[in-house]
Write a structure and sequence with these properties.
The longest helix is centred in the first third of the chain and has 35 residues. The chain has a nine-stranded mixed β-sheet, with helices on both faces. Helix 3 packs across helix 4. The protein contains twelve helices and nine strands. By secondary structure, the protein is of the alpha/beta class. Helices cover 39% and strands 15% of the residues. Strand 5, helix 4 and strand 6 form a beta-alpha-beta unit. It has one domain: 3-Layer(aba) Sandwich (Rossmann fold), CATH 3.40.50. The protein is globular and about 90 Å long. The relative contact order is 0.11. This is Serine aminopeptidase S33 domain-containing protein. One of its GO terms (molecular function) is palmitoyl-(protein) hydrolase activity. One of its GO terms (cellular component) is membrane. It holds the Pfam family Hydrolase_4. Keywords: Membrane, Transmembrane, Transmembrane helix.
Length: 343
């Protein structure tokens, strides 16, 4: 009798546990877009750039000339962003900035400021669907459409020289940029990838090891950058913070190794760089690394019809890093307040 009661108890516990696991997996399956994409960071009060603290609300607060842009996607959504431009924009390179995951585009102004003043480039940054004032809700397929619409907007803009187009993708934006470059690489001078991941599948393994056991049946978001990067032929610069607490630094290293068909590729690693402050920890050297890459990629594009061009520029180099010594690298020209103003 005791054994039967014990078996019955164990059976009930197993049923309850099985039901709980099944329900949890169903919730993950249905809600994973909401789990991955985080437009409201640190909370819903900061959904829109104008709700941010001062100097994070628009580029004008940091003395950058800009225009507000609205871009229509192929599925009829409107995306909102900024074209931040130099005095004579056609004579400068333009960087299309595919932004990180959490938060609106105003959260990126501290890093954009460094690119704008130190490199004297134009920057086009537009919120993905569901981020800031952009319509819709984020999905993998949707962000792919967003990337294409943003890129086409740049090609058509009368103040953007489409012979001087670069793209930069940070974190999630790296995956967005890679899938775009695979389709549009003939029109891109070069691509910069910072603290991005190999795939969502591998990030699940890293962050949610228990869920990883069931990912084959519940996963609906993929972003398979590690499979796409071998198809990229444009010049590539990989930037990695060696103390990245979100994306393991090995992901950037593996993407670098897998990019076997790039015209040339470079790696810049920042000692002490974390997921969101690699640019700051690198300091001036971070800027120099990007400037060196842009100069070489621009020269490569100008001479790519020369049959000897590719062989003269193929480079599997790891660039030396002088940044990350102490609390930060050599100072950028414009000091930036990194206090946590979003608490």
């Amino acid at each position: 009798m005791f054994i039967l009661s014990l078996l019955e108890f164990v059976f009930k516990i197993a049923c309850y546990l099985g039901f709980f696991i099944a329900l949890s997996l169903l919730m993950v399956y249905l809600l994973q877009n909401r789990m991955l994409y985080i437009p409201d960071a640190p909370n819903q009060a900061f959904r829109f750039p104008e709700n941010n603290p001062k100097t994070y609300r628009n580029p004008g607060e940091r003395n950058m000339s800009y225009e507000e842009v609205t871009i229509k996607t192929s599925d009829k959504l409107k995306l909102a962003g900024w074209f931040i431009k130099q005095k004579n924009p056609l004579s400068h390179e333009t960087v299309i900035y595919y932004h990180e995951n959490a938060g609106n585009i105003g959260n990126r102004l501290y890093a954009i400021e460094a690119l704008y003043f130190e490199l004297e480039v134009n920057i086009l940054i537009v919120g993905y669907r569901g981020y800031g004032h952009s319509e819709g809700a984020p999905t993998e397929a949707g962000l792919e459409l967003d990337a294409e619409a943003i890129f086409q907007f740049a090609l058509d803009h009368k103040e953007i020289n489409n012979q001087k187009l670069f793209i930069i993708g940070k974190s999630l934006g790296g995956a967005v940029a890679i899938q775009l470059a695979e389709k549009k690489q003939d029109q891109i001078c070069g691509m910069i990838l910072e603290n991005t991941f190999c795939s969502i599948s591998e990030m699940v393994d890293h962050i949610f090891p228990l869920i990883a056991l069931f990912k084959s049946i519940i996963q609906r978001i993929y972003w398979p950058s590690i499979d796409r990067i071998p198809n990229i032929k444009v010049p590539l610069l990989f930037i990695g913070g060696l103390n990245d607490e979100i994306v393991p630094p090995t992901h950037v290293n593996r993407l670098f190794e897998a990019a076997k068909n790039a015209a040339f590729k470079q790696m810049y690693q920042v000692h002490g760089g974390m997921h969101n402050d690699t640019w700051f920890k690198g300091g001036k050297d971070y800027i120099y690394a990007i400037k060196d890459f842009i100069d070489k990629a621009s020269e490569y594009r100008a001479n790519r019809d020369n049959s000897n061009n590719r062989s003269s520029y193929v480079s599997n180099s790891t660039m030396p890093n002088q940044g990350g010594v102490g609390n930060q690298g050599p100072q950028l020209r414009r000091p930036i307040n990194l206090n946590n103003e979003f608490n």
